[in-house]
Design brief:
By secondary structure, this protein is an alpha/beta fold. Helix content is about 35%, strand content about 25%. A hairpin with a 3-residue loop joins strand 4 and strand 5.
């Protein structure tokens, strides 16, 4: 450290243009230096919740962030409508992917979150919430679906309302490890964390009886410290989880498909139509789950598009525009005047 005022702290909350950081001395409202902002090349050059940073402690609980220490892990997604990735959190040990048993249940969504977690070196786990809303038979069916699709993933079935399943979940959360809660709006992430803390620190609203959803309240990523020493991060609900450069995470998640792809006749096999494709053969025979195969293709395509250069994207968009224009012209020739 350059001087005695410089200390290590952890970013616990991210605001627009400011951060809350915490260490043994207390909590501070912190900002980065003008030099840091000038030298930053992308969003990843700025602090994120979970980061360990070097700060100058100032009077009145203020601080200046001087340096971001090396990140052990990172979880990010493609920001909707933007070209660059958005950091969700850093230095995470386990990502809890939360779904409730309501109408938006989707195994494919689990895989989407798993891909971005694995790409950042983070182990995913599943929390099924609101199990009090379904019968035991319905729950057993969902658990069987998960076990079939994700045989090596830890799964916790819980109810915030009744407390069922929380003893097992608490045992899984270890001291000094950090757990990030991910999922769509209304699945109960904040309520889960409140229950784990044993107090209602995070504001939530009652569940909607019509939609079986809680109303989404969390607007900023925030870190909380459990009495037993575990650290948890609440995140705003995400309607859409865009794939960033998560190619490694996808290969890791779909390792059975990755292994099969090495036996394909062609090295550049797309696994969609080629003769001699080992992946297609396995999907057709039922060796691999058909929905899993289709989701693999979808996530792979999305990642490849993200990794394209901006010039390639513009060229692709231009070619697509020409295709649409020519199609409309052909349709008009055959009497389809509405096009």
């Amino acid at each position: 450290m350059e001087n005695e005022n410089q200390k290590i702290a952890r970013v616990t909350t991210e605001y627009k243009g400011a951060y809350k950081v915490k260490n043994d001395d207390g909590e501070f409202l912190a900002k980065v230096t003008g030099k840091h902002m000038f030298n930053a090349l992308s969003r990843e050059d700025f602090p994120a919740v979970g980061d360990f940073v070097v700060i100058d402690e100032l009077p009145e609980d203020q601080a200046v962030i001087r340096q971001i220490l090396a990140r052990k892990t990172i979880i990010k997604r493609k920001a909707i409508g933007k070209g660059e990735a958005q950091i969700i959190a850093t230095n995470i040990d386990v990502a809890f992917v939360v779904e409730s048993v309501g109408r938006d249940w989707s195994l494919n969504r689990f895989e989407r979150y798993f891909a971005i977690a694995r790409d950042g070196g983070i182990e995913p786990a599943i929390i099924i919430n609101k199990i009090d809303l379904i019968s035991k038979d319905e729950l057993d069916k969902k658990l069987a679906e998960i076990k079939n699709r994700f045989p090596r993933t830890n799964v916790f079935a819980v109810s915030v309302a009744s407390g069922n399943g929380f003893d097992e979940l608490k045992k899984y959360i270890e001291k000094d490890k950090t757990y990030c809660f991910l999922g769509s709006s209304g699945v109960g992430k904040s309520s889960l964390i409140n229950r784990l803390m044993g107090k209602n620190l995070i504001k939530t609203e009652d569940i909607s009886l019509y939609s079986e959803r809680g109303k989404h309240i969390t607007t900023a990523r925030q870190m909380y410290f459990l009495d037993d020493g575990g650290v948890v991060i609440d995140n705003p609900g995400m309607r859409e989880v865009g794939m960033a450069d998560a190619a490694q995470g996808i290969d890791n998640l779909f390792d059975d498909i990755t292994r099969l792809s090495k036996m394909c006749r062609y090295k550049d096999c797309t696994h969609t139509h080629e003769s001699g494709c080992a992946v297609l053969k396995a999907a057709d025979s039922g060796e691999i789950d058909r929905d899993k195969y289709l989701n693999y293709l979808s996530l792979k395509k999305e990642t490849e598009f993200y990794e394209m250069s901006e010039l390639e994207k513009r060229e692709k968009d231009k070619d697509f525009g020409k295709f649409i224009k020519n199609t409309k012209k052909s349709l008009k020739q055959y009497g389809h005047k509405n096009f």
